[in-house]
Amino acid sequence: MRINRDKFIGQWGVLLLVLLLLAGSIIHNLYKIYTDVLAGEEQRLLTQARVVNTNLSAQLQGTALVMQHISEELRSIEHSRWTDVVSNRELEFDVHGIAGVRTVFTVDRTGIVRHANRKTLIGSDLSGEACFQSAVKNPDPAVLFVTPPFKTSSGVWGMNLVLVMRDADDHFNGIVVATLYAEYFKTLLGSINYSPDMWSALAHGDGMQFMMVPDRPGQQGINLARPGSFFTRHITSAKRENVLSGTVYATGENRLMAIYSIQPTGLNMDKPLVVAVGRDRARILEGWRAHAIRQGITFFVIALVSVVALTGFQRYQRDQLHLALDAEQAVLNTKQQLRDVIDFLPDATFVIDNDKKVVIWNRAMEKMTGIPKEEMIGKGNHEYTIPFYGIRRTQLLDLFDVDNAELEAKYANIRRTGEILDAETFCPALYDGEGAYVWATGVPLYDANGQRIGAIESIRDISERKKNEDFLRKLTHGIEHSASAVLITDLHGTIEYVNKKFTQLTGYSPEEAIGRNPRILKSDATPREVFDNLWRTILAGQEWRGELLNRRRTGEVYWSIASISPLHNEQGEITHFIANVEDINERKNAEATIERLAYFDPLTDLPNRRMLQDRLDMALKRSRRQATGAALLYLDLDSFKHINDSLGHPAGDKLLREMASRFTQTLRDDDVVCRLGGDEFAVILHDIRHDQDVVPITQKLLDIAAEPLQLEGREVAVTSSIGIALYPKDGTDAKVLGKHADIALYHAKAEGKNTFRFFSEELNNNLRDRVAMEHGLRHVLDRGELELHYQPKVSVTSGQVTGVEALLRWNSPEFGLVSPMRFIPLAEETRQIIPIGDWVLRTACQQQLLWQQQGLQLNMAVNLSAVQFKSPTLVERIAALIDETGIQPENLELELTESALVDKPDDVVRVLEQLRSLGCGISIDDFGTGYSSLSYLKNFPVTILKIDRSFVRDLSHNSGDRAIAQSVVSLATNLDMKTVAEGVEEPEQLEILKQIGCTYIQGFIHSRPVPADQIPAVVQRLGGEA
């Protein structure tokens, strides 16, 4: 095999070498053609460029001669007489005689056009033009100036040839100008384009393109003198002609380009003209590429044919070799096959010869007995029976010669069929003594002459079958005594079996049921469609599960759940059906109870929130169908929590049941009342044709709710608030109507309760703004949108600043500068005031220390809201902030409103004393506007009372306000407290406060609240700190 493999590798090596030589030859030939194509095209393009040079040079020389002739004729003539010597008519003849020249005109030394073949130019002032200025700067008559291309006012492109004229004294006398006509040169350049992909162009020596053929929009006038462009590469080479390859700057194409600088012999041109002739490289090499592809295909075909041919030849060689090897192996295989057939039989099999020695012991026998064949082959004397019985004994193969009578008398478990013996027996020694039931079959073996040469025995383990039979007996017993009713029918539905539970469930005994159809159980309560579906399912070979309302033998109807499955034979055909039936009467009753609990409120027996959705959907469908309106009312009992807290939950439940009864009796029969949970109810009103139709009904609900009732021996009256959403005005689906009714309810409660409000878009917008502002408040600290302003607190007697009050400001990118009156209540409601308050306190303390470092000793007053004050961790947080910032507690004053001190006075005193123990001052803000009891005030460890601005505003005009202010100051003095008057704006107010003995003032009279960096200036302006 190794020799043949080396031979095959050598054949492939030779083929590869031949293909490589052929590929090299093709590549060399293609490269030679490639270089020849490019070289030939370069010469053709260069020839075309030279043709343009020859024609254009002759044209330029002729034009220059005419211009020199005009210059010589006018050399000694005054400007005013130029037309006498050379008339405009003559210029027209000259122009007609010069191909490619559009205009010829003369300009005197002052820049005025004296002659022109186009009369419109005569008298024009060209003194500021580039062509005139260039001649003035370099008045050399030997130089022919070539101006860059330009576009005239009429949209025509041109390029001027300028020749300086001198007078008889050899002074500058003006210029002669000839304008080259682009259209003529387009014809010239077009005549040399011999291929559709070819174009030619003419450019000024400075790089500005004059024209391109074929013409392309936007090409005239572009500057080609860019780094790396064809033009730049040609000019920098200092050669007259070049053939270049690359990307054209003006068009972005990859082209082969011949470039020629036109500067005729004998003409001293200041700048040359540059002609470029080019072709697309792809089109030039188009034929070569096609040839290369054909060569490649040819090579591929040759290579493929060679590979296929060699592969086929080598396959033929291998086939011949395999035939020889197969013939040799066949002889060996034939001998082994007989042993392998027996060895791979699934049943344990062994063969003995006439000497009763083992000659074959197959794999299944090794597995069953655990004895490898190497240990058993050649053994005799019944040793092969030991693995089965543990001893040597008579085996099935010893009984072939025993007659039938003896066999039946001695071996009841053995059956003879012809010469075949079958036996079922238990072998106790198998599987390490666990034993197993086996089925054995023995057959004598004969040679070709009919002589017995031995015997073969096959043994099969039937322990699993015995277990299955035992399991089947148990299963039958289990079904018979099952807790579920079981019946089996044939394919036509005739009952063949029922168990005991069936008799208990239905009342039919086996004798009464077997042979009959299950229709004996059918009641008229189960729809026919259920039975149709049942038969379709089980006849399709699938299990049917479902609930049936059946009838017992006594006629009683009962619920049952049945599982009916088809039974199949070995061919997969349905032969029987088995049904498992359970009594679910109790469960159905429980489900009915659960369903009612799911859709009805157990306390009031009203539909609940889930049922509301269903009823509202039905109401909307009815309104659409009848083209009428509907209304959804959300009703909330005011102060219901107070009833629960004061009288207990049983009283609250009684109140809810009473309200449910009142609402139901007040409404029409087809209107719907639901309880949503807690003290919330919903009402659906049908047939609403006008918005005002709802008002009388809503007012009735408010009135009936407000009527007193007896609870726990007390007369109690509650009010309610109602939000109304109308269909279709406020929404066309249940979700939107529910949302809008909830918004209206929110505003009804916000506007004083015991009232109703219709939904409006304005309410929605207000709620949306509130939600947006609430969302913004949650992020004000992260986004750094809060800042503190400070209002000085000034001593009335000295006029000096003693401290400041920190006032919170919210500068929101979304809402602008938000008033504290607007966002503080919302922050308190959402409890965002707690982290915001901590930030305010921390920032104010840090600012006080910063001022102290700057030499300002100012007390810092910080407001605490009622929500902050009621926080159980308030004292701990303030103590931690004092430690964190390092502020001296005596420099910190905490301001609280009277409303924060109303509830639970004993707890208030405890918290205030804890705050005072920290060393902080405590002031009551807006004193006199709340509901504080003076009896509690004397127990509060308060240091300052702040007189509210409402008493200060009319202090100079209202004797009542003055009396109140005087009373507050007197009260504070008697309780050893100081006073601060807020909102002082007028000198009269200040004078009265000074007279009544007020300690400090705050107000615009001294300063508005200002940012922290302005406080030092305010303090200095007011005379420094106290």
Could you provide a short overview of the structure?
The protein is of the alpha+beta class and 1026 residues long.
Structural topology:
Layout: H1 2-73, H2 82-85, H3 88-97, E1 101-108, E2 113-116, H4 130-137, E3 144-146, E4 150-151, E5 157-166, E6 172-181, H5 182-191, E7 199-204, E8 209-213, H6 230-237, E9 241-247, E10 254-262, E11 273-280, H7 281-284, H8 286-343, E12 348-353, E13 358-361, H9 363-369, H10 373-376, H11 386-389, H12 404-410, E14 414-417, E15 420-427, H13 430-433, E16 436-446, E17 452-461, H14 463-480, E18 485-490, E19 495-498, H15 500-506, H16 510-513, H17 528-539, E20 544-551, E21 557-568, E22 574-583, H18 585-599, H19 609-626, E23 629-637, H20 640-647, H21 649-666, E24 672-677, E25 680-688, H22 694-706, E26 709-711, E27 714-716, E28 720-727, H23 734-750, E29 756-758, H24 761-777, H25 780-783, E30 786-795, E31 801-812, E32 816-818, H26 820-829, H27 833-853, E33 859-864, H28 866-869, H29 874-885, E34 892-897, H30 905-917, E35 921-927, H31 934-937, E36 944-947, H32 949-952, H33 959-974, E37 978-981, H34 987-996, E38 1000-1001, E39 1010-1011, H35 1015-1021
